[in-house]
Every structure is written in C-alpha cells, then in structure tokens.
Amino acid sequence: MVLAGPSDLQRTAGRLRAGLRAASDGLSADARALLPGLVVGDTSRVPPDLDEAFRATDMTHLLAVSGSNLSIVLALLVGPPHLAARAERRGLAARLGVPLRLTALLGGVLTLGFVVVCRPEPSVLRAAACGLITLIAIGTGRRRTLLPALAAAVLALLLYDPWLARSYGFLLSVLATGALLTIAPRWSATLRARGVPGRLAEVLAAAAAAQAVCAPVVVVLAARVSLVAIPCNLLAELAVAPATVLGFAALAVGPLAPPLAVGLAWCAGWPVEWLASVARTGAGLPGAGVRWPGSWGGALLLAGVTVVVVSLARRALRHPWLCAVCALLLVVAVVRPAPLVRVITGWPPPDWRMVACDVGQGDALVLAAGEGTAVVVDAGPDPGAVDRCLRDLGIVRIPLIVLTHFFFPLFRSVS
Length: 415
Prior knowledge:
Elements: H1 8-23, H2 29-40, H3 48-56, H4 67-78, H5 92-95, H6 100-118, H7 122-140, H8 146-160, H9 168-193, H10 198-222, E1 224-226, H11 229-253, H12 258-284, E2 289-291, H13 296-316, H14 320-335, H15 338-345, E3 354-356, E4 365-368, E5 373-377, H16 383-392, E6 397-402
Parallel strand pairs: 5-6
Antiparallel strand pairs: 1-2, 3-4, 4-5
C-alpha cells in the first residue's frame, strides 16, 4: 500500500544515487559493484562471490554505510578530530577561514544530507546522531564528552525507533564505535610505548579493538571466526578514505557535470579495486576462518577466549621474539602450506588416484592426471568448497572438466 509519493528531497537523493551508478558503469566489474556500496550502501550490483569474500574477511562494514564514511567526509571539512577545536586544525573549512562554530553548522548540514542520500538505515542513523552530537561538542569546546555523546545518541535513537534494539547491524555499529572511544586509545598508547610508530599504532589498535568487541556478535550470525579480519581490514584502510572521498565527489557532481563524475569515478575505481583484491585474496587463503558454535553460548565462549588472548598478548609484547613466533604460527595456520599440511595430517596421501571432495549437496570427483593436474567430474553448487578441495590436493591445472548436469561454479585457484 502506497501512502504517499517521494518528496522532492527524496527524488533529488535518488537522482544523485542514479548519477553515481551511471558514472561507475564504465569501471571493471568489481569496482562497478563496490563503489556505490562503499559510498551510499547500494549493494545491488555486488555478486554473490564478492559478497562472500567480504563476509569471510569481516569487511562487510565497508558496504554498510556507517560512521567511518561520515567521519571521512567530516574530517575533510573539519580536519582530524584531535585538532578540530584548535587553531592549527587542518580541515578544508580552516583553510578557507571559516570560523569553528560555522564549520560545525556546515558539518551538521552535511550530516543531514548524508542521511537523506544514504537512506535512514540503522547504521546511518547511529552515525548521524553521533556525528551531530560530536559537532556540537566541537563547536562548544566540550570535546571530552564523546562517550556520553554516543550513549545519548543510542538512547535517542532507541526512543525514536525501539525496533533498532533488535538490529544486529545497529548493535555492531555501536559496539565498534564504543571500542574506538574506550579500548583503542589505551591499546594505541601501549603499542607506542613498545616502539610502534604513532599512526601504525592507532590503526592497529582501532582494527583490533573493533574486531575484539564485534567478533562475539558476528559469530552468532556466521558461525565462524575469521583469522584474516584484522590484516585484511588494515590493508583495506589504505584505500577506504580516497575511495570514499572520490566517490562522494562523483556523487555530488554527477547531475551537474556527468563527464567530470565519470573521471572522478574512474579515479575512485583504483582504490576500490584494491579493496576487492584484499577481500578475494584474504577469503581465498586456506585458513581464512575456523568454524565456531553459532549461538549465544558460542559468543560467550569467544568473548572469554578473547579476554584470555588479550591478557596473554599484553605480556607477549614485552618479549619481541615471542611476538615474532606467534605471528609466524598464525601465518602458517592461515596459509597452510601444502607440504607442511601433508606432513602433519597425512592428507592428501602420496600417489592418490581419485578423491571425492566434500562439497555439501552434489558431487565433485577429482582424478589425478599428473603433477598438479587433474580431471574434475562435476563440482557441486558451492565454488568455495571445491576450490578449497583442489587447493588442498595441490591442483593448479585442470585440462578437462566433465559436467553430468547443469552446475558450473567458478574455479578461482586453478586454470
């Protein structure tokens, strides 16, 4: 039942989103799919395999418009948060001589436009509420009230829409923001005290803190724990800011100058391609994730394990050689070199002739045809399952594929 048509403001927002999609039409498949998702949360073009790669690496927050998108745009206007209320702030408004209070007002207008264009999703509303309260704190000189600001924003949104209390996306957004305000600064200070460069310490602490508090909730939804989430998110951090800024620029100029929007989208395509490569590469690693009980009991168990790991990590930081050994063991667990796996597990056995891969519903038979070569009969409906099986067997080339029925998943690790 349609109660009313879209308002003029909503039509304008729709034209902006359509302009961004049109500007990204000439990009590669991954960039064309990801750029609208990164900027306005439009994931309609994201293919299932790429979506699964982002889930496996815990990078789906990049496709759900949230506080990170808004903070990047506001930082461009206001400057870095730690300098926002000082004379040496480095935002665009300061370079143009705009007073701090007027800058906060412009930031508020930008935040409201952000909500309209990106639609009032739970994560968008939480980001906007926190952003507005933070701008008020900056404009009045009370920047030390950021944590109460988060609590006030959450309370206001729950009073406005109590059903947000049942939204996992809203919960994850609030937990990640709270971790960045409370845990990340202390972890960053600890890393700097151990000789880690300042910027690297901040990025490491932010990624680790967000992962630590969000992982118990994610495991309820996905029944697995990602071992590559932190490094993949660290690598993605290099491209998020330029892709977001260029994407929003293409969004803004699309209706006025479509050729310029196409050029900006082309520039944004490079960092967006990097994000896709990080997600696909991370998800393709043999030990990218481990299965975990997908229940609240499993979440509590993971929270307990996280507390123990954090306690041990703080002690391990005092011994660089121990940190190096732990990092090496983690790399081995994720990469799982075939010769080492064969020594430890005895799989695959030497001189194997035929293997039936576990691909869930369906069949996948692999017939040995020489060193690193095999003939495959059927592949099952899940490309990831047969891909992992072939990788474990050391298959790098398939000269012949026999299909007995209409199923043909995409092989990623073989040619």
